[in-house]
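Subject: Predicted fold for AroM family protein, 225 residues

User T.R. writes:
Posting the sequence so we have a shared reference for the thread.
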Amino acid sequence: MARTRIAGITVGQAPRTDMTADLESRLAPTLELVQYGALDDLTASEVERDLAPEPGDEVLVSRMRDGSQVTFSGTKVLPLVQARIDQAEREGARAIIVLCTGSFPEMRHEVPLVYPQPLFHAVARTLASGRRVAVMVPEPSQVEQAKTWWGDHGVEVDVVSASPYAGIDGVRKTAATLRGSSDAFLCLDCMGFTTQMRDAAREASGLDVLLPRTLVASVVSELLG
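User M.O. replies:
I've generated the structure tokens; pasting them so everyone works from the same file.
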């Protein structure tokens, strides 16, 4: 029996081999994940040259195909994301997941288009019941924008930073600084964080942990699986 095609669009390069197993573990066996990358046609040097954040731009962090990290403007990458949405729909996707917890405007689409950020924030707000939550973002330059985004969705946050693309040890070390805090739980605020990092952060911080990649895959599986 043919499986239903689900598109995963990373703002970096596809395939996101660091993400595939965690996503597929939450998808129903009737669903097939096909990945697309906004930066697939660019080199790292071209990303630095053409997509560098301007003052006031949203800062996004993602992964290139070779595993290296890149930082770029959320505004400048939008046309590339839209091109991949259009391609995924032409190729038969029944739903599309944008594999980034950044803030996105409404984009052109015909099938369900799932942005992790509003879903992630809504679940966290409900679970927190007015308490402050800890949030981990990849880069120090993202701390203030994270406070703004979460605050706009009604969640008080304590923000720390550690890149998922620099390995699990940094995640564990930063999570340990939250041990003994009064935060309700910890949100790993990037689709780059893995289930192994979630488990390490939980052990190091003593907090429960919410991971966006498995959350969003579970929701899509419930919808179409």
